[in-house]
Amino acid sequence: MKGSKKYNESMKIYDKTEVFKPKDAILLLKKMASKNFSETVEIHFNLGIDPKQADQQLRGTLNLPHGTGKEQRIVVVCKEDQVEKAKKAGAVDAGAGDMIEKIQKGWFDFDILITSPEMMGQLGKLGRVLGTKGLMPNIKSGTISKDIEKSVREFKKGKIEYRNDKYGNMHLVLGKVDFDKDKLFENFMSIYDLIIKEKPSKAKGVYIKSMSLATTQSPGLWIETSKNKWGEDE
To answer: Is 6 in a helix, a strand, or coil?
Structure first.
């Protein structure tokens, strides 16, 4: 199998057909992790939903108990009287028309774009380019907000957006592999419980078809989808 040296080494220490309990998977991922840098831990779902139906799509935000470990670069489009407040809250940059023009010229050195409702009319002209990059502000994602300062602080602390793709898959950052194992598990449970809670009423058949955990350089570890099978220690 082609892949990085670290990936191929990881493949040798586990059975790729094995299905793990979450805590066991987290411990194995920590064992397989690189010593050279802190790898990101991701969780992947394949859901039994019909993404073409609006009432079966999952989208929203979640505050992870221990954050993602990633420093989010946040940019804000707002009125001039909110610029300094946005920056003090943690935005790397903020502005009104000047910020829109900067983005329009091709500047995308940020991870999250937050704006206020009254600025959406002007920002709308960038809808196509921002949409293709997944950066267009949206009420459901919490990036259109009347309280700019609060929104910036929440995303800085580890608020994440979740959204299924057109195939019914969902990919989320769980944290960093050097997080304490209990913190990774608590983040895992926050995401798992949310997915269960948000199950569309019209979704038929098996809801969580598959679930896996992986780090930046590791293979994916299949996770038992039913909480009832994890055992009392989970």
So the answer is: helix
Q: Of 101, 83, 104, 105, which Cα lies nearest the Cα of 92?
A: 83
Residues 6 or more apart whose Cβ sits within 8 Å of residue 129:
none
Q: Are 177 and 69 in contact (CB under 8 A)?
A: no
Distance between CA 33 and CA 35 in Å, rounded?
6
**Cβ–Cβ < 8 Å for 119, 95:** no
Of residues 232, 222, 188, 226, the one with CA closest to residue 207: 226
- 60 or 14: whose pLDDT is higher? 60
Report how far residue 91's alpha carbon sits from residue 96's, in angstroms, rounded to the nearest whole number: 14
Q: CA quadruple 152, 158, 161, 167: dihedral positive or negative? A: positive
Query: Which one-letter DSSP state was computed for residue 134?
Result: T
Structure confidence by residue, pLDDT tens digits, 164-209:
999 999 999 999 999 999 999 999 999 999 999 999 999 999 999 9
- Cβ–Cβ < 8 Å for 188, 64: no
> What's the CA gap between 99 and 26, in Å, rounded?
41
Look-up of token digits 């910036």? 152
Count of alpha carbons within 13 angstroms of residue 168, beta-carbon side = 20
**CB neighbour class for 164 (10 Å; exposed up to 12, middle 13-18, buried from 19):** buried
Q: Which residues lie across from 113 on neighbouring strands?
A: 75
Number of H helices, E strands in the chain: 8, 10
pLDDT in tens, 109-151: 999 999 999 999 999 889 888 988 889 999 888 899 999 999 9
Closest Cα partner for 78 from 107, 118, 124, 106? 118
